[in-house]
Amino acid sequence: MSCRTAALALFAGLLGSGAASVPAEAQQAGTVYRVGYLIVPTAESSSHIREAFSRKLRELGWVEGQNLIIEALSADGNVARMPDLAAELVRRKVDVIVTPGASAALAAKKATSSIPIVMIFPTNPVELGLVASLSRPGGNVTGTTSTLGLEIFGKQLQLLKEAIPHASRVAILRNPGDPSARYMREVETAARSLRIRLQIVEAGGPEEFDSAFAAMARERADALLLSGTPTFLSHNARLAELATKGRLPTMSNFREYVEAGGLMAYAVNMADFVGHAAVYVDKILRGAKAADLPIQQPTKFELIINLKTAKKLGISLPQSLLQRADEVIQ
């Protein structure tokens, strides 16, 4: 019997016994682990997250198809599908569930209290009820949180105001079905300090984008802030097109939006941030408990600017802003 066949046989035996976490000694003996990967947006639109995650796992010695199998399920942008997909991963008896986004993390937590969950991105996981505290999560959830609260929103609005000094009214596009929508009060606090009036515009999906941008036009919004919901990731190109057509300078949480034609993003360094989650998956598969792993917060942020989009919008960006950018798309 080949090593590969033996590993798969042992893997099948583990599934039958319902094992969820095995010490490092068993891993070295040939165990193949199953990692559930649950996302709201399409696999294509969030491929950068998956690639960064898999790359870090390989650095840690985990190779898909050899000692690791990733069971990836996507809701294709439909948040309502998350509970069923989370339940499916539990039925597959995965060893750990990775959840980029608050909706995925909440669905996974509701589906299981025993399988370890490593979250990526959720804002304020304590308030969401995902963990007891950042330093001592407790339960079966750990991972990373995407923002530092008010500071990130304040910084995004500050950069937007620096790019568009005359901006006094900023629209915010959000999905009311996403848990991150509850943090608009933090954005409002930041806006008041910059003397910016906010226009809250909601869109549950792409079918509501046209009416949302029409509402922004009626209220004469000077700029647009895209909330950090992953449900919009699948539609970056469409959102960028509508913003350009409406001559709206835009700030986003995701660099992919800028690559698709948006103006700016102030976002976490994805490789570094997702790498923390991969490290936690590695620790859990080697015997650590999620309850003992403190929640990690981002330490690296990037400012990405699309100069080509600025020219389309007829905007001359300050040199001081361009010089501070980590990347300028020409």
What does the model show?
This protein has 330 residues and is of the alpha/beta class. It has two domains: 173 residues, Rossmann fold (3-Layer(aba) Sandwich), CATH 3.40.50.2300; 147 residues, Rossmann fold (3-Layer(aba) Sandwich). 41% of the residues lie in helices and 18% in strands. It has 14 helices and twelve strands. A seven-stranded mixed beta sheet has the order 7-6-8-9-10-11-12, with helices on both faces. A five-stranded parallel beta sheet has the order 2-1-3-4-5, with helices on both faces. Strand 3, helix 5 and strand 4 form a beta-alpha-beta unit. Helix 3 packs across helix 12, helix 4 crosses helix 5 and helix 7 packs across helix 8. The longest helix has 16 residues. The chain starts with a helix and ends with a strand.
User: Quick one: CATH superfamily of the largest domain?
Assistant: Response regulator
Q: What is the radius of gyration computed over CA atoms, rounded to a whole number of angstroms?
A: 21 Å
Number of strands: 12
CATH topology of the largest domain: Rossmann fold
CATH class of the largest domain: Alpha Beta
List keywords for this structure.
18% strand, Rossmann fold, 330 residues, 14 helices, disordered N terminus, seven-stranded mixed beta sheet, alpha/beta, five-stranded parallel beta sheet, elongated
Write a brief structural summary:
Helix 5 (102-111) links the parallel strand 3 and strand 4.
How do the strands and helices of this protein lay out in sequence?
Blueprint: H1 3-17, H2 24-28, E1 33-39, H3 47-59, E2 68-74, H4 82-91, E3 96-100, H5 102-111, E4 117-120, H6 125-128, E5 141-143, H7 150-163, E6 169-174, H8 184-193, E7 197-202, H9 209-218, E8 223-226, H10 236-245, E9 250-252, H11 255-259, E10 264-268, H12 270-285, E11 301-306, H13 307-313, H14 319-324, E12 327-329
Helix pairs in contact: 3-12, 4-5, 7-8
